[in-house]
Specification:
Elements lengths: L2 E2 H10 L23 E4 L1 E5 L4 E12 L2 E14 L5 E16 L3 E11 L4 E12 L2 E11 L4 E5 L7 E3 L11
Amino acid sequence: MRFRLSLLCAAAVAAGTFLSPVGTTVRAEDGHDFGPTEITADTLEWNDEAAVATAIGNAVARQAGRTLRAEQFVAHAIRAEDGSVDQIGLIEATGGVIYETAVERARGDAGSYDLVAGVITLTGEVELERDGNLLRGAILTIDLVNGTSHVTGEGDERPSLQFGNADDEDTAQ
């Protein structure tokens, strides 16, 4: 059964703590509004002392038309000056990480989403498909604030960009 993080929030409030990423606005350093963030998973665990939520099994984070999927998330919350927790600052994802919007899809073995800076980083045989083009490499960085993507290789592996139909991989060989 899938539990929503908001259900975990109710338990945290009952225990005398506060965590509410659902409906919380997270602003990047330049003031860009990324909107509310919702995390769902098969199992959710909240550690109040560390201000960390762990989502295990079919973890999904949704925010303003963006979706991040993985087998597991560790979401680091940000504490306010009064000690309350009201937003997620960083999500670390492992196990088949997929990032999707209406116009692009990226995948990697692991990744992180810095919600404050608006930066998604994927590692391990990464691919980014956008407009029928395919970008491949070892490390992919997507800057949501500036609208840019950057890929690098690792070791002898060099990044590649395939123009045209990304579904037709035989033509690139």
